[in-house]
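Data availability excerpt. The first of two example chains:
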Amino acid sequence: MASYDVIVIGGGPGGYVAAIRAAQLGLKTACVEGREALGGTCLNVGCIPSKTLLHATHQLHEAEHNFTKMGLMGKSPSVDWKQMQAYKGDVIDGNTKGIEFLFKKNKVDWIKGWASIPAAGQVKVGDDVHEAKNIIIASGSVPSTLPGIEIDEKIVVSSTGVLSLAKPPKKLAVIGAGVIGLELGSVYARLGAEVTVIEFLDAITPGMDAEIQKTFQRTLKKQGLNFVMGAAVQSVEAMKTKAKVTYKRRKDDSEHTLDADVVLVATGRKPYTEGLGLDALGMEMTKRGQIKTDAHWQTSVPGIYAIGDVIEGPMLAHKAEDEGMAAAEVIAGKHGHVNYDVIPGVIYTHPEVANVGKTEENLKDEGRAYKVGKFSFMGNGRAKANFAADGFVKILADAETDRILGAHIMGPAAGDLIHEICVAMEFGASAEDLALTCHAHPTYSEAVREAALACGDGAIHA
């Protein structure tokens, strides 16, 4: 039996970061992970593999649509799906080995297997029980499904199965117009699939700024994605080589069917706490199956902490990482901090979509006076040169103080551009502070400055 200051359950972004941070702070640390590789869902069957397919298929799109405009002549590349899958595997492998190296470097023990907590201060893996002064639960989440839909990961797939299909489908039905559905829908649309997205609500990307939702949906339609909005899926019937989706339109209750080679169920994710033994510990949970924590990420059981997808808040890898570092710092007697008002969200389609802070709808609901600064990428020289002028930057600032309250970007490198606004918000900056900061020309980031100028006397290039 080994004894530790901290045992982290789960080797995903939240868990491995918590383990490394705890070790850096001088705590004897172990991390329990049952997969064959570290990195969790994000690295093995989520963020990283989906980005490889997004990147590869975007290059294909550029070759098919923009190369000749730049004087790059010749045949468009053909798709070797096996090689694309191998490229994806190499990227995953390189990253997971990187985490193993970081564990060794920081003297974090990787305990291989699945954990349970028989009592506070104890973690059981296989037949071994390890002592721990503190436990951090970072067991993540799994794809959720709809009642009556059976996922077989061949014809009816989750976000895991859709990354490793035997071949790209000719017809793909996507249930759910959230981040996962739109990213993977766009991958297969670029590979020639006829993609239909079925969404229960009347707008895509629920919770996002309404103006972004409308513009983004219009852009995806141009890229060949079909949308059936306000539709409730009743059933998915898998046959030998295809599936039949039955759905009802909410406005008139009319029933429709859709045939597809593959159906992606992208209806979100749910916390994964199975087998941990939380009931026996008497741990307090929310109605949605999340672990309840206090302001220091401690659960209702003293000495047990929880972070990431198993607790409340957005299910984002970087949110889990922040919480992992903060929880480790609290355990080490320091002050852990996460600013939940400044957690960016990104959709890695093309164009990318990124947001941070409040939406206009949030501010209207709060009755808060605000001003809007907007700038279109059509006015950005670099974006036009790169055939990437779709979209805009929108900054929301307090009407009186000019403090930045939120930002929404749809356009090239939006996922990177959002961070200068995150830093500005972390420091309590005004839109004018951003507008007075010199930005290099020609860069995409000039669009951010122009939107900040539009919060004042007006953008220059609009």
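And the second chain:
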Amino acid sequence: MRRFVVAVLAAPFLIVPFSSPAAAACARVPSDFNGDGYGDVAIGAPRAHDPVYDVNWQGVVHVAYGSAAGVGKGAQANASFRGSTAGLPRFRFTGSERLGESLASGYFDGDCYADLAVSAASGSDMLVLYGSAAGLTVDRSAGFDRTAIQPEGEYGSGFSSDITTGDFDGDGFDDIAAGAPWTDANAGAFGVLYGSATGITNAGAQWIDQDSASVPGAAEADDGFGTALAAGDFNGDGRDDLAVGAPGEALGTLYGAGGLIVFPGTAAGLGTAGSTWWDQDSAGVPGGAEYLDRFGVSLTAGDTTGDGREELFVGVPSESIGTKDSAGMLQIFRGAASGLVAGSAYNQDDAQIPGDAEAGDQFGGSLGLADLNRDGRLDLAVGAPGEWAGTVDGNGAINVLFSTTAGPTPAGSVYIDQNSAGVPGDNEDLDAFGWSLGRVANAYGGDTLSVSANDEKVTYSREGAVTLLPGAPAGQARPAGYFFSGANFPAGAAAEANFGAGLS
């Protein structure tokens, strides 16, 4: 089972008319499902039990709507969706689907309401919910699986275990890329479904693996190609490109060293010609490939420099720092007119990054972007869900690297755990704070970071929780955070639910 869930975010929050002729002229705030200008929060609890069908690990998706008063504080009530919710595609999501393990929002049909793609990877399936003035509804909801792309395709691929969205063909409609890392003895693959005036369709859909024409390498057992995905316009041509992680890739005798492939966006959609391979032995990449590094297990992308090209951030949480196994590392690739350029790497033993690299920290296990100092540039949050605090085992933490015109820098970076000032709760064994990260735009006066503690005990064991951490201008104290659990939503709290495993 893939452990880390990454929230992929594309651009700083700006309320401007969207210029594409295919789209309505309106503000497009990330994850604004009801179009009121405030970002909303979708939270997956993939191991939640469904009492209607008496199914374990069926999963629930919870939604809290933003407002001037705060997230979940406005007139629109919080909502919950599960496989047995009336109006969803009948019998499509009623098994042990792990609904909500990965979530990604986008504007799939060109209107003024953000839509949501929801993983159901145990069934190799995916749910699409459309936004409206009333928020996300079951109206027009649709299910897609591998057979929507390949009619002869088999189940068991893990299709949608990670999801990202981007406009790969530049037509003004967001598209969906969904990883399928369990395909063909875990060699892996991914599928692409395109947006249109009517939403996501299977017209022009693509299924790509490492045996596809012009794709570097070859499909091999346990490569895990498609484990993590990140969409971003790396060369500034107006079309999103796609980075796809293969953390199980063997490099010679280095089993599980890992790598990734970047696919270019074109007017015809995502291309395989011109796709490029990166690993830690590639020219310019700091460090070196090693056994079980699992380079590419977490990814995110966004423009952190303000130059109109997006950077790619790669987590290597299993990287050893000296003798410290799985202490973890972050790799940064800079966007350029020619595509990605290898850049810098950081770990918790770097002098300007608070904390210390320790065995099992898994620094880089999750990655998220949000403008947390309110200067107009996205900052980088790096999760270390295995971090220890004193004698507390695996409470988890995050480090925030603030961006300059050169992108995120360790100078002035901050460390946050559940004992930090303004963070609700306390450090406890195995909370895994920082398991997944997301961005809430225009919340509490600007960007806010959502942070899950995937295994937090609130009322029940491994129930899970999410904390919203508002940003603040440099030099000002960060406002107190806000704590959410299943108890804040109609579906309620549940043991072992892993509330927060997916965030959008």
